[in-house]
Amino acid sequence: MTALDRAGDVLGRLRALPTAAISDALDRVGLAGALHGLGPLSNDFRAVGPAFTVRYAPADDERGSVGDFLDDVPQGAVIVIDNDGRTDVTVWGGIMTEVAAARRIAGTVINGVCRDVSASLEQSYPIFSRGRFMRTGKDRVRLVAVGEPLRVSGVTIKPGDLVCADADGAVVVPTADAIRVAELAAHIERVEAEIVAAARAGSTLRAARERFGYHQLQSRQS
Ligand SMILES: O=C([O-])CC(=O)C(=O)O
Ligand SMILES: [Mg+2]
C-alpha cells in the first residue's frame, strides 16, 4: 500500500466520524487539535481533507487583496486561513465560494470571518469561521504565507494535516497520528452507542457508563 493509499484510507475513516469523537481521541493521545471559537455557517456542513494553509496580515500601507491563492489549491483540500482571529474584515467571499465549489475543494476553515454567506449556503460549500461580516479585507489585509505552518487557537496546523469539521466545529489531526486517532475515535463511537443501547434497554445511565468505561474514554493513555 502506498503512502497515498494510506492517506486516502484514513481520510475515508475520518469522514465517517464526528469531530466530537475525534476530539476525544486527540485528548486520549495527548494532542491539541480542537480549533476553539470556529463554527460552521450551517449545521449541515461537513468537511474532511488535507490542510492547504494560508496566512494574512494587516495590509498597512501596502495594497492588499484576498483570495488570489485559490488557483493553487488542489481538489479535496481543506483551505485553512489564518487572519489572526480578526472579525472586522473578511478573507473569504462569494466569488471564492463559487470557484472553490466548482473545483471540488472540500471546504474552508477561517480564523477570521467571511461574507456572501448566501453563496456558501446555496452551493452547500462548507465554511467554518469566527462568524460573518460584510466589510472586505481588500486593501486591509495582505497575503503573507501559503503552505506554511499556522498557529490557530493554540493549535499548530501544518500543510497536509487532516482537517475534520462538522456541526460541532473543526479539529486538526497530524498526519502521523491519523490512523491511531481514527481507530480510537471509532472505538469511542462504538462504546458510546453501546451505552445508549444499554440505557434504552432499561439500564440507568450511571450503570451503563460505569459498565462501558465512559468516564475514561477520553482520558490520557499512560
Ligand atoms: O472581499 C472578500 O471577502 C471577497 C469576496 O467578497 C468574494 O470573493 O466574493
Ligand atoms: Mg463578494
TrEMBL record:
Cofactor(s) the record lists: a divalent metal cation
InterPro entries membership: RraA/RraA-like (IPR005493), RraA/RraA-like_sf (IPR036704)
Pfam family, one: RraA-like
Catalytic activity: oxaloacetate + H(+) = pyruvate + CO2; 4-hydroxy-4-methyl-2-oxoglutarate = 2 pyruvate
E.C. number: 4.1.1.112, 4.1.3.17
Enzyme class: lyase
Top-level division of the source organism's lineage: Bacteria
Subunit structure: Homotrimer.
Family to which this protein belongs: Belongs to the class II aldolase/RraA-like family.
Biological role: Catalyzes the aldol cleavage of 4-hydroxy-4-methyl-2-oxoglutarate (HMG) into 2 molecules of pyruvate. Also contains a secondary oxaloacetate (OAA) decarboxylase activity due to the common pyruvate enolate transition state formed following C-C bond cleavage in the retro-aldol and decarboxylation reactions.
Protein name as catalogued: Putative 4-hydroxy-4-methyl-2-oxoglutarate aldolase
